[in-house]
Write a structure and sequence with these properties.
Elements: E1 8-9, H1 15-25, E2 46-51, E3 57-62, E4 76-81, E5 87-89, E6 96-104, E7 110-117, E8 127-134, E9 140-143, E10 156-161, E11 167-172, E12 187-192, E13 197-200, E14 214-219, E15 225-230, E16 247-252, E17 257-260, E18 273-280, E19 286-293, H2 299-303, E20 306-312, E21 317-320, E22 330-335, E23 341-346, E24 355-360, E25 365-371, E26 375-379, E27 385-390, H3 393-396, E28 404-409
Antiparallel strand pairs: 1-25, 2-3, 3-4, 4-5, 6-7, 7-8, 8-9, 10-11, 11-12, 12-13, 14-15, 15-16, 16-17, 18-19, 19-20, 20-21, 22-23, 23-24, 24-25, 26-27, 27-28
Length: about 425
């Protein structure tokens, strides 16, 4: 990889100039990067990378046959120990038609993913469950556990893990989990392995479940904080019944409170912006999220106008991160465990190509690290490694346009940033 990366540091009031210099002053075209999974990765499509805290393991979903025991074209979850580079396909039952949505625990010793299972009967709908797998012992738990002896229905998907496999946040529309609505409403739940219990997170202070869908659950490393998006109108504070937008919430299990992040009182104009995909640090004290600008009369421009915002629980304030040439063209953020680094996708503007960008909040330093169309970036908890998906021929070196997973070192991570014993 040829990545001639330059960096710049300016005061915050020069942020627009900073973005201009980065976009014009960096040549970091990456050609023929080796995708995770080696040459076999070219035969399929791969998505959703997840890194362990030290960046030594990666999990993702793929239709490529990356291991000898993969005998079909269904979606499978793979885990790779990056020092060895050998893909490991995670088993799914003979009744399953695919698996995906993998999330590694911070310690890299557990992975959670969803599996779609069919009964073989035309009158029975497919069932999605979450599997929690210990990568050393290969022990597996089903979430929800046995569906509490009730009829197995609905789906549980897209889990995320804390530091270990003890806490698993996921979303589900299964009536058996206690949300009795018709049609079923998707809610956010937290599974605690120690007690084998599932708790509803997307609810208000009175314990009433969200009346509209909730999704994109993220859990802190200790399981205390869960963040999620919801279109509900009955969470706190309540919204008008004609509200259709998703909003960003932070649930603190220790205090029993649910806080709405995207409020005008915090410095975020929800009348002018709609919160979207987000990432959270290990402690749940910082969130970085994308927001789409509302542009009345310009629906297509509105869909493509995104900026990044930072919420800090300590101050309760939201600040806008992207400006200059990054303004309106930044999305899909991923934050390191200590909240210091944020990697995101720059969509490009005019003749300026799209790119993968890393922001070092401590040094106020921005780096454009990959030129090309990228998606769903991930960053290891310690900030040392980045992962992303891309089907851009400028990155893959071929014209297949199949999405593949790539891992690179974070060029903004320096030797003095490495954690030392006793610190």
């Amino acid at each position: 990889m040829d990545a001639r990366v330059r960096w710049f540091r300016f005061a915050r009031h020069d942020r627009g100039l900073l973005a201009l210099l980065i976009v014009l002053g960096v040549s970091s075209v990456a050609r023929a990067l080796d995708p995770v999974g080696g040459a076999n990765a070219a035969a399929g499509t791969s998505w959703r990378p997840s890194l362990s805290r030290d960046g030594s393991r990666i999990a993702f979903e793929s239709t490529a046959r990356l291991s000898p025991d993969d005998t079909d074209r269904g979606m499978d979850v793979y885990v790779i120990n990056l020092p060895t580079g050998t893909p490991r396909r995670l088993p799914r039952s003979s009744r399953s038609v695919g698996s995906g949505g993998a999330s590694l625990s911070g310690d890299g010793e557990a992975v959670a993913y969803h599996v779609v299972e069919v009964s073989g009967r035309p009158d029975v709908q497919p069932l999605s469950v979450v599997l929690l797998r210990d990568l050393d012992s290969d022990r597996v738990r089903r979430i929800p556990p046995g569906w509490f002896g009730l009829k197995a229905d609905g789906e549980a998907v897209l889990p995320t893990l804390g530091r270990t496999g003890r806490f698993v946040a996921f979303t589900s529309n299964a009536p058996g989990l206690g949300i009795k609505r018709d049609p079923p409403v998707r809610g956010v739940f937290l599974y605690e392995a120690d007690t084998d219990k599932v708790r509803l997170i997307s609810r208000n202070a009175r314990g009433v479940a969200a009346n509209r869908p909730s999704a994109e659950a993220r859990v802190s490393q200790d399981g205390r904080v869960v963040a999620f998006l919801s279109a509900a109108t009955n969470l706190d504070p309540a919204l008008p019944s004609n509200s259709l937008s998703y909003h960003l919430y932070l649930a603190d299990r220790s205090s029993g409170t649910v806080t709405r992040v995207d409020e005008i009182e915090r410095g975020f104009d929800s009348a002018g912006w709609v919160a979207g995909r987000f990432s959270m640090d290990d402690g749940g004290g910082r969130l970085v999220f994308e927001a789409r600008q509302r542009l009345p009369g310009k629906p297509f421009d509105s869909l493509e106008t995104n900026d990044l915002f930072l919420f800090e629980a300590s101050s309760g304030a939201v600040t806008r991160l992207t400006s200059g040439l990054f303004a309106g063209h930044s999305h899909s953020p991923a934050m390191s465990g200590n909240g210091r680094w944020t990697v995101f996708v720059y969509a490009g503007a005019g003749k300026d190509p799209p790119a993968l960008v890393v922001y070092d909040r401590q040094r106020d330093l921005w780096r454009r690290v990959i030129d090309g169309a990228c998606g769903r970036p991930a960053i290891s908890g310690d900030g040392r490694r980045l992962a992303f998906e891309s089907g851009d021929p400028n990155i893959s070196g071929d014209k297949s346009k199949n999405s593949r997973i790539y891992v690179i070192d974070n060029p903004s991570f320096e030797e003095e940033d490495r954690p030392h014993a006793g610190h």
